[in-house]
Structure formats: structure tokens, C-alpha cells
Design goal:
The chain is of the alpha+beta class and 337 residues long. Among the domains are: 2-74; 186-333, Histidine kinase-like ATPase, C-terminal domain (Heat Shock Protein 90), CATH 3.30.565. 54% of the residues lie in helices and 15% in strands. It is built from six helices and nine strands, in the order E-E-H-H-H-E-H-E-E-H-E-E-H-E-E. The chain has helices at 23-74, 89-148, 155-176, 191-208, 228-247, 302-312, and strands at 2-4, 16-18, 187-190, 212-217, 223-226, 255-262, 267-274, 316-322, 325-333. A five-stranded mixed sheet has the order 4-6-7-9-8, covered by helices on one side. The protein has a two-stranded antiparallel ribbon with strand order 1-2. A hairpin with a 2-residue loop joins strand 8 (316-322) and strand 9. The longest helix has 60 residues, at 89-148.
Length: 337
């Protein structure tokens, strides 16, 4: 290596200083200076790639999975999916998508149920018109028989048949006039009298099926403010539901019990109990929803109508099993004295 130097007492002006070193030592010095820095750079790059891969797996893959689930929901498949185990923002997003899926599934079920109800109404209107004509003809024939044979031994049975036909005509008339203003509206309803009238209509069916029918009522009058026909529908649906269940019971004596009393909270309490096996396990969550039935001959509307009537009268309905009997309980607010 040649280095220019300035003039001094030890060097001639314009001279050079020559420094000699071994080539292998120079290369070793360069290697020692460059190699550690290169290794550090490579290790840093590898660590950065590893961290980037881990972060990508942590964030990108869950996001891709959420995208797949969202696409599945968009295609109309509303099934729950497993949530991420890590509690972070991605999990919060997954929980929101999960809730959205549940809501969409519920909305779809509601739309389908409403479509079925609308279709049922359209088909039922024509059938109800014909049935009302048939019921009117049958009622007129029975009334004619009563006038011609007033001393008939079947007078009581014929009277029950007439009441059933009049009730059928009333139901069909209300069905055909659904949505129109009905005369009369709400008023005072004596529940004991109403329940008694309903039980008289179903007593022949109980006798025919050899089902024991009991009615226990409170000594004090229980009067509510409501629509008499709707409350009659509520009682009739519960009693017929209990009658059908008692027929399927395994007890030695099938029994249907109806109790009417005043609660400590000042409400009228109606209980309909039967010795049947109780609702099927698959029906428990949808027991009071429309079309919730496993019976081939059932429409699944009886308990739904009962709940609608109870709630329309600021009441509530529920059920439980007690002493090997199924019990449906309806609570209605009493009129203020």
C-alpha cells in the first residue's frame, strides 16, 4: 500500500510511505469484519420471516375462515360454526357473525311460518264456507227433528249436538270474517260459567272414550274483562288437547281434571291436567309455536291459539309435569271490584 506523505526531516518532499501486509491476513481481516454483520442480517431476516408467518397464520387464516363462513351464510346455510379459541378482536367479529347467523335463521323460520299461515288461510277460507253451509243444514235438520219428536229419549244428546253445531257455525263465521270488526267486543266474562259450558260440550266425548272428567271451581266468582269467544277458544283448545293426551295414556283410569281458582296475586288461574304421557321431547322448545306437532292428525295450532288469546288478555300460559300428570296453567288478571 503506497501512501503519500508530506515533507519532514525524516522524509523527502514528494515521497511515499509503503506499507506491506500479507494477503491472507488482509482477507481474514475483511472476513472477520463482514461475516458477523452478514450472519446477523441473515438471522434477522429469518426471524422476520418467521414472525411474519406466525402473524399471518394468527390473523389471516382466521379471517379467511370467517370469510368462508360468511359466504356460507350468504348462500342460505344458517348453521353455527366453532368460535376462535383466542379472545381477541377476531373472536369478537366471529361472535357477531354467529349472532347474525342465529338471527337470520330465526327470520327465515318466521317467514316460512308466516307463508304457511297465509297459505292455510287462503285454502281454509273456501273450505270454511262449505263447512258452514253443511253445519247450517245439519242444525236445521236436528231442530226439525226436535219439533217433530219433542219427547225423544235422545233429547239431551240432540241438545249437545245442536250446541256443537252452533259453535261450529260461530267458529266458521269468525274465520270467514277474520280481520273485520266484530260486534260486541270485550265485556265481563264469568270464567266458571264459561268453563262449565265448554266442559258440557266435551263431556260426551269423554264418556265415549271412558275418560273421567272432573271440574273443581272456586266458590267465589272469577270475572275477567275480555272477549268471551276467544276465551272459550282458549279453554276448548286446552281441554281437547288434554282429552287427546288422556286417550294415549297408560294409566288404568284415564282422567282429565280442570280446576279454576284465585291466586294469591289476585289472578284467575285455570289448570287443565291429564294423565297422558306429556309432550314429546322434540316439541318442548316449540310447544306453543304454530304447526308444532308430531301427531299425524294434528295441525299444531291449538296451543298456539291458546297462547295468543292468553297474551291478548294480558295473561300467561305455561305447562309442567306433576304427580304423573301433564298440567297446563293459564293466569288471567281479574276485573277490579
Amino acid at each position: 500500500c503506497r501512501v503519500p506523505v508530506a515533507a519532514s526531516r525524516f522524509a523527502v518532499e514528494g515521497g511515499s510511505l509503503v506499507v506491506l501486509s500479507r494477503e491472507d491476513q488482509a482477507r481474514e481481516a475483511v472476513r472477520q469484519a463482514v461475516l458477523p454483520a452478514a450472519l446477523v442480517g441473515l438471522l434477522s431476516a429469518g426471524a422476520a420471516i418467521l414472525v411474519a408467518t406466525i402473524l399471518a397464520r394468527r390473523f389471516v387464516r382466521p379471517i379467511q375462515r370467517l370469510g368462508e363462513e360468511t359466504a356460507r351464510v350468504a348462500s342460505g346455510v344458517f348453521l353455527p360454526f366453532p368460535l376462535p379459541s383466542r379472545n381477541d378482536e377476531i373472536r369478537d367479529l366471529a361472535v357477531s357473525i354467529h349472532r347474525m347467523t342465529e338471527k337470520l335463521s330465526q327470520y327465515e323460520a318466521d317467514v316460512r311460518r308466516n307463508e304457511r299461515l297465509r297459505t292455510l288461510g287462503q285454502l281454509g277460507a273456501g273450505i270454511a264456507h262449505q263447512l258452514r253451509n253443511f253445519a247450517t243444514g245439519a242444525r236445521m235438520a236436528i231442530e226439525l227433528h226436535q219439533r217433530e219428536c219433542p219427547q225423544s229419549a235422545d233429547g239431551e244428546s240432540i241438545g249437545v249436538a245442536l250446541r256443537q253445531l252452533r259453535l261450529m257455525e260461530s267458529y266458521l263465521h269468525r274465520f270467514l270474517n277474520l280481520g273485520r270488526a266484530e260486534p260486541g267486543g270485550r265485556g265481563r266474562v264469568d270464567l266458571a260459567m264459561l268453563v262449565g259450558e265448554v266442559l258440557e260440550l266435551v263431556r260426551p266425548a269423554c264418556d265415549h272414550a271412558k275418560i273421567e272428567l272432573r271440574f273443581e271451581r272456586s266458590a267465589e266468582p272469577l270475572v275477567v274483562w275480555g272477549e268471551r269467544q276467544s276465551l272459550g277458544d282458549l279453554v276448548m283448545n286446552l281441554v281437547l288437547n288434554g282429552l287427546e293426551a288422556a286417550r294415549r295414556g297408560n294409566g288404568a283410569i284415564p282422567r282429565l281434571e280442570v280446576a279454576l281458582e284465585r291466586s294469591e296475586q289476585g289472578k284467575a288461574v285455570l289448570r287443565v291436567m291429564d294423565t297422558g304421557p306429556g309432550p314429546d321431547a322434540v316439541d318442548l322448545e316449540r310447544l306453543f309455536e304454530p304447526f308444532a306437532t308430531t301427531k299425524p292428525e294434528g295441525a299444531g295450532l291449538g296451543l298456539y291459539v291458546a297462547r295468543q288469546v292468553a297474551e291478548a288478555h294480558r295473561g300467561a300460559i305455561g305447562w309442567d309435569r306433576r304427580d304423573a300428570m301433564t298440567r297446563f296453567t293459564v293466569e288471567l288478571p281479574l276485573m277490579e271490584s
